[in-house]
Every structure is written in C-alpha cells, then in structure tokens.
Amino acid sequence: MTAVLVTGGGVGIGEAIARRFAADGWQVAVNGRRPGPIAAVADAIGGVAIAGDISEPATAERIVSEAVAALGGLDCVVLNAGIAHSGSVLEQTPESFERVLRTNTIAPFLVARAALPHVIERKGSLIAIASSAALSAGPDSAAYCTSKAALAMLMKTIAIDFAHTGIRSNSVCPAWVRTDMGDAMMDELADQRGATREDAYAYANRLVPSRRPSTLDEVAGTVAFLASPAGAGINGAAIPIDGGVNSVNVGLLWDTA
C-alpha cells in the first residue's frame, strides 16, 4: 500500500490533500505543530498524527522516522506547512524575514533531506506546496515571495540531482484558494472596501481569466495526480493553479471590469 507524509496537514490545503490521499487508498501520516487539528484529521481518515515543528532539524528527522515506522515506508512527501508575514524589505525585520524563510524554505529542506532515502527506496515523489508568489511578486510580500520562490527552486534542484534514482520532485503554485485563511484575508479586504466577502474575492480575482479563486479540491487533485503513475513524466515542474493569471499580460489590459 502506498504511503504519504503531509506536513501542515491539520487545516486548509494540507487537510484537503490528506483527505484526498486517504480517499484514493493511501496510508497517510499527518504532521503539524498543533496536536489537536492533526489528530482530528488523522482520526477522520484513518491516518496517523505526528506532531512537531519541522523547522527544527532533530524534529524533522524524528517526524520522518515516525512516519516510516508507522506506515512501513514513504512513497510521497507533501511539503505544505507555511506561514506569511506581510511587508516590504524596509518593513520586514531580520527576525520576521528569517522566520518566514525558516518555515517556508528551511523546514521543507530538512524534511526532504530526512525523507529522500526512503522516497528513493520506493521510487516515489516529493511535492511542495509553493505559491503563485513563487512565480511572480506581489506587493508587501518580500519574505513570502522570496521563501516560496526558493522552495520551488529547491524542488527543481532535487529533481535534477536525484531523477536518476527514479524519484520525482515538483511543486504546485496556487494563487487564491478558498480556505479559512483566505476567507479571513478577504474579510479584511471587504472591511477596507465596505463590501462583502464574495465581493472581495471577486475584486482579488478581477485579473484572473476564470474570475474566481481555486478550490481545495482542485489543489488536492493536482497533488494526487503528481503522486500517481499518471504523473510519472512530470519532474522539476512548478505547476500554477491560478485560473490562468500567470498568462495575463497586465500591460495590455485596458478594461478589467
């Protein structure tokens, strides 16, 4: 039976991915800093909860070891845990900038480093949840954009260095996704504009050809495809899940209504 470790699997995108893998018949280990949410997800899907902060080297190694022991091996690791801290370079402090990079880039490196021998043994795959911010920059997001771009490049380097072993390494790059965190950010935007949450989502996605955010199922489905035999030919990719906004030349948009 195939086995996967999902970091940041207690809520949002990570939870949706864990549930999708379980529905597809995989054994699932769910990691997160908070024991409560990951235990709830693990109980719901018949998986294993492994709490711990993967930004600590010893903890990352322990989590991988416990996942391997519980599941009998690893065919896939989904590197999903991440945080954001808004601000330009002048607004970031060294501490806030380092904290975002430690969670979004260094922690995935630590888990990948610990998990690679096990994934190589099964000729499996690593999949990182990067962001559309890995492909193009947004305002007041110096730390987040930098960390996600570095994460996507980390996955490319793994693909280049270890493809000969039979493994694959990719990232997916969602733009706006309907999650609790996304809803909270849209509520803030709605308050600023005197509008509703739905109005805020529409405004935030006004330049997206599909004119809507992505769904959790769409992100989870893409990850499941990459981990499946159907995705065996994809390696070193950074796949946008953004409704087509990566293809938009904003300089040619005279009317975005």
Protein described:
With 257 residues, the protein is of the alpha/beta class. The protein folds into 2 domains: 205 residues, 3-Layer(aba) Sandwich (Rossmann fold), CATH 3.40.50; 36 residues, no CATH class. It has 8 helices and 7 strands. A 7-stranded parallel β-sheet has the order 3-2-1-4-5-6-7, with helices on both faces. Strand 1, helix 1 and strand 2 form a beta-alpha-beta unit. It starts with a strand and ends in a 16-residue tail after the last strand.
List keywords for this structure.
Rossmann fold; 2 domains
Quickly give the structural class: alpha/beta
Mean pLDDT: 94
Which second-level CATH architecture of the largest domain applies? Answer: 3-Layer(aba) Sandwich
The fourth-level CATH homologous superfamily of the largest domain is NAD(P)-binding Rossmann-like Domain
User: How many domains would you count in the coordinates?
Assistant: 2
